[in-house]
C-alpha cells in the first residue's frame, strides 16, 4: 500500500493531489485485504478518474479497480451475454465487441474510463445509454463483504443516474458487468451528426464498425483529449424542464437548443445555454470553458480543483440569472460528504 501518493496520473483533469493511502486490486480477495488494512479510513473507488474533480488531497484510502476479464456467459439466437471485469477499459471493450461483431455498444465508442464505472451514471452518447444493453452486475457490499447481483430494474437507471449514485451511494463496489449484446445489429443512426458523418463518407449500408468510426470522428472534432487538455467531459447535465418552463424560455430565446423527452419533459442543451451566456472560451486563471464545447471545463495546466469548482459555481449563477435554470454538476466532486464512505 502506498502512502501520500500522487493522484495526478489517475484523474483526467490532471489535478495534482495526494491520497493518504493508495492501492490497486485485481480481485475481491485483494480488495478485502486492502479494506481490512485501513478499516476506518474514508474510501474512494477509482476507475479511470474521468468523471471526477479532486478539490483537495484525499484524506483516506483510494483503491483503483483493476479487475479484468471478458467471458461469454450464455447465448441464444438473438443475444450474446458477455461478462466484463470492472477494471477493463471501456473503449477497449467496445472495440473488442466490434471485432467480434457483437452489436449494441458502437455508439458508446471512445468514452473514457472503466467498465465498472459505466453503470454508475448509466453512460450515454449518440442516442444510446448502457441501460439499453445492460443485463446485470455483481457488486461487493462494503459493510457485509457479500457479493450481490443487480438486475437492470434494480439499478434504477435514468439520464446519468443509477441507484449507486442515490439510495445505495458508497455502499457497493462494482466487480463485473454483464451486457446482452445483439447478434443482429439494430443500428442507431437517428442522432443527426452520425448520419451526416456516414453521408460524408458515402456509406449507405453501415456496419457497427462504420458507426463506431463515425462516433469517434464526431467526438474527436469537439471533445478535448484528456491526454492533451485536462477535462472530465460534460461538467453539467443537460437540464430537463417541463413544457410550461420550456415555453417561457422559448418565447425569449426562439432558437434555444432542445430535445423532446416526453409529453411534459424537454431537455435543454446546457452547452447552448453556456455559449449563449457568453461563457464559451471564458477563462479564469489556468482553467476555463472549452472553446469548441461549452459544456466541457478544461485545465490549461496547473489549475487547482477548487478553481475549477469555483468556475463551475460562476457558470451555475450566470445561467440561473440569465435563464432561470439551475444547472446540476455531472462530474463527481471529491471529497464531498456524499462521495466519502
Ligand atoms: P471514475 O471517474 O474513476 O469514477 C466515477 C465515479 O464512479 C466515482 O464516484 C467513483 O468512486 C465511482 N466508481 C468508479 N468505479 C467504480 C466501481 N467499480 N464501483 C463503484 N464505484 C465506482 N460520460 C458519458 O456518459 N458520456 C459521454 O459521452 C462521455 N464523454 C466523455 C468524454 C471525455 C473526454 C471525458 C474525459 C469524460 C466523458 N464522460 C462521458 C465521463 C466519463 O468518461 C464516464 O462517466 C465514465 O464512465 C467514468 O469512468 P471512470 O472509470 O473514469 O470513473
Ligand atoms: N451546443 C452549443 N454550444 C456548445 C455546445 C453545444 O450551442 O458549445 C448545443 C448545440 O446546439 C448542439 C447541442 O448543444 O447541437 C448538443 O451538443 P452535443 O451534441 O455536443 O451534445 P451535449 O448535449 O453537449 C451530450 C452528453 C455527452 C455526449 C453527447 C453526445 C450530457 C451532459 N452530455 O452532450 O456526454 O457525448 O451528448 O451524445 O448529456 C459526458 O457525459 O461527459 C458527455 C460528453
Overall tally of structural domains: 3
Structural class by secondary-structure content: alpha+beta
Multimer state: single chain
The largest sheet, given as strand count, sense and whether it forms a barrel, is: 5 strands, antiparallel
What is the strand tally? Answer: 20
CATH class label of the largest domain? Alpha Beta
Helix content: 10-25%
Described by the principal axes of the CA atoms, the overall outline is globular
Strand content: 25-35%
Which architecture of the largest domain would the CATH scheme give at its second level?
2-Layer Sandwich
On the 0-100 scale, what is the average pLDDT? 96
Radius of gyration over C-alpha positions, nearest whole angstrom: 20 Å
CATH topology of the largest domain: Uridine Diphospho-n-acetylenolpyruvylglucosamine Reductase, domain 3
Q: What's the arrangement of strands in the largest beta sheet?
A: 6-7-12-10-11
Order of helices and strands: EEHEEEEEHEEEEHEHHEEHEEHEEEHE
Amino-to-carboxy terminus distance = 19 Å
Number of helices: 8
Attached small molecules: flavin-adenine dinucleotide, uridine-diphosphate-2(N-acetylglucosaminyl) butyric acid
Unreliable spans are none
Amino acid at each position: 500500500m502506498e502512502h501520500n501518493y500522487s493522484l495526478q496520473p489517475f484523474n483526467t483533469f490532471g489535478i495534482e493531489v495526494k491520497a493518504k493511502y493508495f492501492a490497486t486490486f485485481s480481485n475481491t480477495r485483494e480488495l478485502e485485504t486492502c479494506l481490512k488494512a485501513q478499516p476506518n479510513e474514508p474510501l474512494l473507488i477509482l476507475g479511470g478518474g474521468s468523471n471526477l474533480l479532486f478539490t483537495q488531497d484525499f484524506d483516506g484510502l483510494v483503491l483503483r479497480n483493476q479487475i479484468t476479464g471478458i467471458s461469454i456467459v450464455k447465448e441464444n439466437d438473438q443475444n450474446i451475454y458477455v461478462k466484463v471485469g470492472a477494471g477493463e477499459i471501456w473503449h477497449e471493450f467496445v472495440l473488442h465487441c466490434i471485432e467480434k461483431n457483437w452489436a449494441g455498444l458502437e455508439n458508446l465508442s471512445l468514452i473514457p474510463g472503466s467498465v465498472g464505472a459505466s453503470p454508475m451514471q448509466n453512460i450515454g452518447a449518440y442516442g444510446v445509454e448502457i441501460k439499453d444493453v445492460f443485463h446485470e452486475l455483481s457488486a461487493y457490499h462494503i459493510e457485509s463483504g457479500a457479493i450481490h447481483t443487480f438486475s437492470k430494474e434494480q439499478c434504477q437507471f435514468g439520464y446519468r443516474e443509477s441507484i449507486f449514485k442515490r439510495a445505495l451511494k458508497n455502499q457497493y463496489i462494482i466487480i463485473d458487468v454483464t451486457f446482452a449484446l445483439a447478434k443482429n445489429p439494430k443500428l442507431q443512426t437517428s442522432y443527426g451528426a452520425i448520419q451526416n458523418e456516414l453521408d460524408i463518407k458515402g456509406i449507405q449500408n453501415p456496419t457497427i464498425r462504420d458507426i463506431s468510426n463515425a462516433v469517434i470522428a464526431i467526438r474527436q472534432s469537439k471533445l478535448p483529449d484528456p491526454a492533451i487538455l485536462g477535462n472530465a467531459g460534460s461538467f453539467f447535465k443537460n437540464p430537463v424542464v417541463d413544457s410550461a418552463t420550456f415555453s417561457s424560455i422559448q418565447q425569449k430565446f426562439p432558437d434555444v437548443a432542445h430535445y423532446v423527452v416526453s409529453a411534459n419533459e424537454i431537455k435543454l442543451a446546457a452547452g447552448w445555454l453556456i455559449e449563449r451566456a457568453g461563457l464559451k472560451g471564458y477563462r479564469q486563471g489556468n482553467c476555463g470553458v472549452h472553446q469548441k464545447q461549452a459544456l466541457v471545463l478544461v485545465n490549461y495546466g496547473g489549475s487547482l480543483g477548487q478553481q475549477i469548482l469555483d468556475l463551475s459555481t460562476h457558470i451555475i449563477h450566470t445561467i440561473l440569472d440569465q435563464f432561470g435554470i439551475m444547472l446540476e454538476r455531472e462530474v463527481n466532486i471529491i471529497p464531498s460528504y456524499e462521495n466519502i464512505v
